[in-house]
Amino acid sequence: MFTRVFGSLSALRARPIPDLAGTRLAQIGARKWPLDSTSDSFAESIVRADRFGLVGRNHYAHARNPPYWRAIEGAVDALYVRESVGVRLQAADRRLRAEGLRLHLFDAWRPRAVQAYFHDVWMPAELRARHPSWSDEAIAAEAGRYWAAPTVDPASPAPHSTGGAVDLTIAWADDGEHLFMGGLFDDPTALSHLDRLERAYDDAGSYSVEEARANRRLLYWVMIEAGFACYAEEWWHYSWGDQMWAKQTGASAAHYGPVEEIP
Question: Are 2 and 10 contacting, i.e. CB atoms less than 8 angstroms apart?
Fold first, then answer.
């Protein structure tokens, strides 16, 4: 039935997300991967995502943004990416638009103040409220799974500070309604793990699980086939040119360092 709706993309909705054990290993220590500051790519421009026909809204710059429900100080309304990232996103977007869908960006380049707030303030407070018995070390470790530490060393930038990382989903092109992914964007729990719905202990008879699983698969394969690397703990996070991408793909060095200010 869904073949008539999703057309050439139907096969991607049926293709399982592969075992991500290797991806998770590659995520460990990714910010220590080499960064070539002498390459031409290092100085590549960062530009607005809408220059490539991409649509989105910065989740942190508006108050209708669960689970926060308030604009975050320091967030910028526009979405910015490196030029090569924009070209690859555009290719993925066009593939979706051929079947009546499109990408929707939640976030791209992120100011250090926003990264610091979530890593240092919001996430630790949320974890302490939910797990009052956890040690400071456990809180710090769990916070780091969902929010990278803000950039201090330019040789070890937070992914979003580079302009190479994006948070996104898929929407219908005609009305902008998002496909169901089985959970909120930025839900800092195991439900957000990219492969969470691929596991055998999930209710295989649930229409909600089956629909969300198919949609996560679609996003995964469209982005991977456009050259991006995934982040296994978040179904919405993909990157190109940063250290996580370089380590996952075996590139000798990452292309992008941190961008402190936008043009």
Answer: yes
C-alpha–C-alpha distance, residues 166 and 77, integer Å: 15
Which position among 44, 211, 234, 261 bears the catalytic label?
A: 234
92 touches 168 (CB < 8 A): no
- What is the DSSP code string of 164-183? -EEEEEEEETTT-PBPP-SS
Which domains, ranges and CATH numbers included, belong to the chain?
Answer: 3-249 (3.30.1380.10)
Residues in the chain: 263
Q: Can you tell me which residue has the tokens 């394969």? A: 221
Residue type, 50: D
The two structure tokens encoding residue 144? 């780091």
Cis peptide before 67 (omega within 30 of 0): yes
Residues forming a β-bridge with 104: 169
What tens digit of pLDDT does each residue of 39-85 get? 889 999 999 999 999 999 999 999 999 999 999 999 999 999 999 99
Please give the pLDDT value at position 146.
Answer: 84
How does pLDDT run across 18-32, given as a tens digit for each residue? 999 999 999 999 999
Q: Identify whether 234 is a catalytic site residue.
A: yes
What pLDDT score does 36 carry? 95
